[in-house]
Design a protein that fits this description.
Chitinase A, domain 3, single chain, two-stranded parallel sheet, alpha/beta, 39% helix, Helix Hairpins, 2 domains, 3 helices
Length: 158
Amino acid sequence: MDRPNYITPAGYATLRAEYELLFAKERPALVETISWAAGNGDRSENGDYIYGRKRLREIDRRLGWLSKRMKAAKVVDPAQQEDKSRAYFGATVTIADEDDNHRTLTLVGDDEADAAKGLVGWNAPLARALRGAGIGDLRRVNLPAGEREYEVIAITYP
């Protein structure tokens, strides 16, 4: 991984909780089901066994991915940001486009991004354009729908 995986403390806790749920609850229960199904004889037509093995591979793959992301994570607390007049990691930014449509979004780690909740990944085009912006700054962003210009209206930190 060539760049750090910035993440908020809440985002890291979410990754950790998912890892612990899969590792401590789902995986052991699934292994028990697979063992039971394997004891029933013919495995070639045993749905519990076949599905269980497939699901176990999915869980192991997800556990590996979560483990790598947590190892590479650099937890950054937005409340500790020194310059709160500019948009940096963890900032909640209100922007307005050319049509005076306002949007409020929070710059978070890529693993926490959720556009429906207004959480924009740190490496998304919009977040990259807003990095370091102050109130009143105009920023141009190349989006899939075309180039847009946004004005920063407000910046807050938790």
